[in-house]
Design brief:
single chain; alpha+beta; Alpha-Beta Plaits; two-stranded antiparallel ribbon; 4 helices
């Protein structure tokens, strides 16, 4: 390359706007059909576990609290999820959706990448049971 070409590029770069965005300070609107974080509605879930069986990255675990009363808690791993939405398409009861507003999921710790969805009392019951000595994981069916 000739030095004249380099100086020409340098002068042109000095007078043009940067191509990048000032992201954390200037946020853009997410596209309408963006596949963001998985959202679970425990009231509609019947525990068929098709979402868990069809997930290619094993990002979904459906934990049974009480099968007779249809009480389930979903353990979701966003760090494993590939956002393919196969679980959403397969759910017969429309209890799963991909949010287009919850897409910023950065974290500095690994603990934040395990999300529990369900009723608060069911989640508390499972976490208390997991904290008991001799029980490593909540019951999973």
């Amino acid at each position: 390359m000739a030095i004249g070409v380099l100086f020409g590029d340098l002068v042109k770069a000095l007078f043009t706007k940067p191509a990048t965005q000032n992201y954390p300070f200037t946020k853009t609107i997410a596209p309408e059909r963006l596949r963001g974080k998985l959202v679970y509605d425990p009231e509609k879930c019947v525990g068929c576990m098709l979402c868990m069986k069809d997930c290619p990255s094993n990002a979904i675990e459906l934990l049974t609290v009480d099968k007779i009363n249809k009480k389930f808690v979903m353990r979701y791993h966003p760090d494993r999820c590939v956002f393919c939405a196969q679980c959403v398409q397969l759910c017969r009861f429309n209890c799963l959706n991909m949010s287009n507003s919850l897409w910023e999921m950065a974290s500095t710790t690994k603990e934040a990448f395990e999300v529990y969805y369900g009723r608060e009392e069911d989640i508390a019951f499972l976490l208390e049971r997991a904290a008991q000595p001799g029980i490593n994981e909540p019951p999973c069916e």
